[in-house]
């Protein structure tokens, strides 16, 4: 169980904590992270900050009249950089939280959430197996009081994504792959302990057996 407690009602905290855990997990499996996209984003952000700071310093030391032309240029440059930053985030990165390579297989993982929906949506693109989306509720790996539990999260990923399962066979529950990747709503919603037949039909078979004996 993780040591950091978050608010289980904050989608942003749930997503950010899970994103961080995903990156740490894949790096631990020897996926060599490609930071090209992150480096470009940071470069744009730092350039914007430098322009803003330089403009403020020049105006403070030299005054408005001496710097107004350069200030106008800086404002335009700042606006362009912010536009580039927004474009990069939404059109290039598209929610990408990890890109890495292991044994020649490159994977890219993008995450997202939807408003008022405590579900983690992942899109995994792999050079070897194409693209797929998997989803799971955050309650799969977060406790009710907001602690992250790594084991079920790792099992979900290793059992749902071939490239990750190949790198972490001990957590790749092959015989439970479908159940972990997309739990059956019938199983989850069936009342237990009240005589209602469960998803396997066990109670129904037992009743049928008793009727047969009475008829005999």
Automatic annotation (TrEMBL):
Report the InterPro entries cross-referenced here.
Answer: Spc2/SPCS2
Give me the stretches of Basic and acidic residues compositional bias: 171-180
The record lists the membrane-crossing segments as 40-58, 70-90
Tell me the compartments it is located in. Endoplasmic reticulum membrane
Instruction: Specify the domain of life of the species encoding this protein.
Output: Eukaryota
Example GO CC term: the record gives: signal peptidase complex
- Keywords tagged on the record: Endoplasmic reticulum, Membrane, Transmembrane, Transmembrane helix
Q: Which Pfam families match?
A: SPC25 (PF06703)
Renumbered to this chain, region (Disordered) spans 170-216
Q: Which portions of the chain have biased composition (kind: Basic residues)?
A: 207-216
Bilayer topology reads: Multi-pass membrane protein
Q: Is Transmembrane a UniProt keyword of this protein? A: yes
Homology family: Belongs to the SPCS2 family.
What is the role of this chain?
Answer: Component of the signal peptidase complex (SPC) which catalyzes the cleavage of N-terminal signal sequences from nascent proteins as they are translocated into the lumen of the endoplasmic reticulum. Enhances the enzymatic activity of SPC and facilitates the interactions between different components of the translocation site.
Q: What is this protein called?
A: Signal peptidase complex subunit 2
Q: Please give the organism.
A: Friedmanniomyces endolithicus
Upper taxonomic classification of the species? Answer: Eukaryota, Fungi, Dikarya, Ascomycota, Pezizomycotina
The primary gene name is SPC2_2
């Amino acid at each position: 169980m993780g040591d950091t407690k978050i608010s289980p009602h904050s989608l942003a905290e749930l997503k950010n904590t899970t994103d961080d855990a995903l990156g740490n997990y894949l790096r631990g499996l020897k996926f060599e992270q490609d930071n090209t996209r992150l480096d470009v984003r940071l470069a744009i952000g730092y350039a914007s900050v430098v322009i803003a700071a330089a403009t403020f310093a020049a105006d403070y030391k030299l005054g408005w009249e001496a710097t107004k032309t350069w200030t106008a240029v800086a404002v335009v440059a700042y606006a362009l950089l912010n536009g580039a930053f927004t474009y990069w985030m939404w059109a290039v990165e598209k929610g990408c939280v990890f890109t890495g390579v292991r044994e020649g297989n490159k994977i890219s993982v993008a995450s997202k959430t939807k408003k008022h929906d405590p579900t983690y949506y992942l899109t995994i693109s792999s050079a070897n197996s194409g693209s797929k989306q998997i989803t799971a509720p955050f309650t799969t790996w977060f406790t009710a009081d907001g602690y992250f539990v790594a084991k079920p999260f790792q099992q979900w990923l290793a059992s749902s994504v071939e490239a990750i399962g190949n790198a972490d066979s001990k957590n790749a529950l092959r015989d439970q792959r479908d159940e972990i990747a997309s739990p059956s709503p019938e199983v989850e919603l069936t009342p237990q302990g009240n005589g209602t037949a469960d998803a396997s039909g066990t109670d129904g078979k037992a009743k049928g057996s008793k009727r047969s004996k009475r008829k005999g």
